[in-house]
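Morning F.,

Quick status update on the modeling queue. The single chain you submitted on Monday has been processed. Sequence for confirmation:
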Amino acid sequence: MSGNFEAHIPALAAAKLDSFFRWSRRRDLRRLPDLLAPGEAVVHLGQGGRSPWWYGTSYWLVVLTNRRVLLLRTTLRRSLIYEYPLSKIHAIEARNESSGGRVTLHIPGRKVVVDSIYPKSEAAAIAEYVREHIQPPRPGVEPVQLIAKLAELQEVGILTVEEFEAKKADLMERIRARMEDIPEAFKPVEQIKRIAELRDAGIVTQEEFAARKTDLLAGI
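Structure tokens below.
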């Protein structure tokens, strides 16, 4: 639990949240310190709703820390938490509406919308902080291209087979991690594209590509 909880979070809540919301979300405010990692600090607090409809229309405690965006809602039956690390957010939008502020988080493969944010000013404040602290996509070489370049170094003896295989395994893991951010319906198509790139780079054979493509097409 953060040592400055008693002074910091209740004071921030009192400044940002109305008395009824502080009372209705008192369980979330109490459990918030236990959710914070060492060195993690709360930057902004607000109240808001979750979109789309399957998240329900009830209000959530919206928490921005120096590491992530948290949405908390505790009821008598269950405790819910959604977390979005800043490292996973590649863009954010904010605007004011009649019902309150609205923030849209752009995460690879999907969007997360938090609306009816009160006070409205928190939407812009959250967006400004996130923009300043997220890491923009790094320009550079794709993992498949890197594997091909490393293979060339291994062929001329600059890298050993062991060094090449170790780095290739690391890059393949990056490719798999990217696949997790793709909506389920599009994963087979994206996998075919990736395997074609591996074939073109000479990392897999035409026969291996054709067999895997047949399996993936069967699953669409």
